[in-house]
Design brief:
TIM Barrel, Arc Repressor Mutant, subunit A, alpha/beta, ten-stranded mixed β-sheet, 4Fe-4S, coproporphyrinogen dehydrogenase activity, metal ion binding, 2 domains
C-alpha cells in the first residue's frame, strides 16, 4: 500500500474549512436526550446476542494544573482527596455495567484517558483495575491492547513500573511543544528530561508501544521552533506521533480565553509547520496513518492499515474493529449494539444517577440503516484512503452509483483537483488528498450542512 502524502499548498488553502474528525458517524453532535438508560440496556442485549470482544474506555478527569489549550472534560485541582468520591462512583458504574455484559466476552482493548490518569495514587489505580478485572473479562497474558495517557510531569520510574504491573502495555505521553515561550503561553512547563525519562522508563519496563502527543498552531509557534521540538523527539524515536491541529474555540472552551489570540500563528505559518512536520517524519521513516497520526512502518497501526484492518473510534485509530466500546466515567462516550451513548458531563448528575443505582447515560443516538452505510464508507476512506464500491454494495445490498449519485457528482471537483481518482470501481485518495481526508469524508455526511461551523478547521 502507498502510504505517502503530498503537500499541495494551494489545495490545502482552498479546502481548509471546518469539519468533523470522524471518530464516529454520526458525530457526537447527533446524540440526544430522548435516548437514555432503557435504550442503552436494549442495545447491550443486542450486543450480547451478537457476541464478540469488548473495548473499555475510562475517563479520569483530574489535572493538577490547567493547560490553556485544553478542550477536554477536566477537573483542575491540587487536592488529591477529590478523587476519592469519583473513584467510588466509577467502581459503582463498573459493577453496574459489568453485570449487563456476558462474562465470556474478552476485553481486547482498554484505555485510561483524561485529564491525567496518573493523578490517582497507585492504590487507587490498583483498585480501579482490580474492580475492572472482577466485573469484566480482561486478558491475563498481556495479549490485550491496554493503554494509558500520561503527563510526564506526573510520572516517574516507579509509576511506570506500577502501570506495567497493572497490565498496561501501551503508553501515550502528552507534550505539545518543548519551546519555553510556547510552554509559558499555554501554561504547560515541561522539560526534556522529564519527558524522555518517562519514555525510556516505559521501554525498559516492556511497554510495546510509545506515542508522543504534539499540537501545532499554539501561540508563538513557528516552523523553526516546532522543528526543534520534533528533532529532539526523533532522537528517541517513539513508535507513534499524534500531531493535532490546535482548534481555538474560546466560546466553547473557557480555558482557551486565557490564550492571547494575537500570539496565535497565522494560517500561513500553520501550513508551514504542517509541511515541515510531514517532511521530517517521512524522512525519518514514519508513515502517515491519517488524521494527524504517524507511525513506524512496523507499528500495529501501520501494519493494520496495509492489511485493510484499520478502524477508527473515539480513541482515534485502532486495530479492533470487532469490539463494542463501553464508556465509563463522567462524559465518556461508547458504542454498543447499534447506538452511541454518552454519560453525564457533570459530576453532580453522574453521582445522582449512580447513587440511585442507575446507569449514568444521559443521551445517545440509535443508528439507522443509512447511518451504518455512510459510516462504513467514511471509515473505509479515513482508514484506508481507498473505497471499492462492490464491497459496499455486497455488504448493504445497494447500487452505489444510484444511492450516492449526488455525492459522486460532488466528488468530481475533488477528482479534477487531484485529491482523488475515481472510476466505476471505486475511489482512491491520492497523496495530495490524504491530508484533506476529512473533506472527502464530509461529502458523505448527511448531517453536516446545518452543523459544520461547530467543528474545528481541517488543517
Amino acid at each position: 500500500m502507498d502510504q505517502s502524502i503530498e503537500f499541495d499548498l494551494d489545495l490545502i488553502k482552498r479546502y481548509d474549512k471546518s469539519g468533523p474528525r470522524y471518530t464516529s458517524y454520526p458525530t457526537a453532535l447527533e446524540l440526544h436526550e430522548a435516548f437514555g438508560e432503557a435504550e442503552y440496556r436494549q442495545h447491550i442485549d443486542k450486543s450480547n446476542t451478537a457476541g464478540g470482544p469488548l473495548s473499555l474506555y475510562f475517563h479520569l478527569p483530574f489535572c493538577d494544573t490547567v493547560c490553556f489549550y485544553c478542550a477536554c472534560n477536566k477537573i483542575v485541582t491540587k487536592n488529591r482527596a477529590h478523587t476519592a468520591p469519583y473513584l467510588d462512583n466509577l467502581c459503582k458504574e463498573i459493577t453496574l455495567q459489568g453485570a449487563l455484559f456476558d462474562k465470556n466476552r474478552k476485553v481486547n482493548q482498554l484505555h485510561w484517558g483524561g485529564g491525567t490518569p496518573t493523578f490517582l495514587s497507585y492504590e487507587q489505580m490498583k483498585r480501579l483495575m482490580d474492580t475492572t478485572r472482577e466485573y469484566f473479562n480482561l486478558h491475563d497474558d498481556d495479549s490485550g491492547e491496554y493503554s494509558i495517557e500520561v503527563d510526564p510531569r506526573e510520572t516517574d520510574d516507579k509509576t511506570i513500573a506500577q502501570l506495567r504491573e497493572l497490565g498496561f502495555n501501551r503508553i501515550s505521553l502528552g507534550l505539545q511543544d518543548f519551546d519555553p515561550d510556547v510552554q509559558k503561553a499555554v501554561n504547560r512547563l515541561q522539560s526534556r528530561e522529564q519527558t524522555f525519562a518517562v519514555l525510556e522508563s516505559a521501554r525498559k519496563e516492556g511497554f510495546r508501544s510509545t506515542n508522543i502527543d504534539l499540537i501545532y498552531g499554539l501561540p508563538l509557534q513557528t516552523s523553526e521552533t516546532f522543528a526543534r521540538t520534533l528533532e529532539q523527539i526523533l532522537v528517541y524515536a517513539p513508535d507513534r506521533f499524534s500531531i493535532f491541529n490546535y482548534a481555538h474555540m474560546p466560546s466553547r472552551f473557557k480555558t482557551q480565553r486565557q490564550i492571547n489570540e494575537a500570539d496565535l500563528p497565522s494560517p500561513a505559518v500553520k501550513l508551514e509547520i504542517l509541511q515541515m512536520v510531514g517532511q521530517k517524519l517521512t524522512d525519518a521513516g514514519y508513515v502517515y496513518i491519517g488524521m494527524d497520526h504517524f507511525a513506524k512502518p512496523d507499528d500495529e497501526l501501520a501494519v493494520a492499515q496495509r492489511e485493510g484492518k484499520l478502524y477508527r473510534n473515539f480513541q482515534g485509530y485502532s486495530t479492533h474493529s470487532d469490539c463494542d466500546l463501553v464508556g465509563l466515567g463522567v462524559t465518556s462516550i461508547g458504542r454498543v449494539g447499534d447506538a452511541y451513548m454518552q454519560n453525564h458531563k457533570e459530576l453532580e448528575q453522574y453521582d445522582l444517577a449512580l447513587s440511585a443505582g442507575r446507569l449514568p447515560v444521559f443521551k445517545g443516538v440509535e443508528l439507522d440503516d443509512d447511518d451504518h452505510l455512510r459510516g462504513a464508507v467514511i471509515t473505509q476512506l479515513i482508514c484506508h484512503f481507498d473505497l471499492t464500491f462492490s464491497n459496499i454494495e455486497k455488504q448493504f445490498n445497494i447500487v452505489f452509483a444510484d444511492y450516492f449519485g449526488a455525492e459522486l457528482n460532488n466528488l468530481q471537483i475533488m477528482q479534477n483537483d487531484g485529491l482523488i481518482s475515481m472510476d466505476d470501481a471505486g475511489i482512491k485518495v491520492q497523496p495530495a488528498g490524504r491530508l484533506l481526508i476529512r473533506n472527502i469524508c464530509m461529502v458523505f455526511d448527511k448531517y453536516l450542512a446545518q452543523k459544520q461551523q461547530q467543528f474545528s478547521r481541517v488543517i
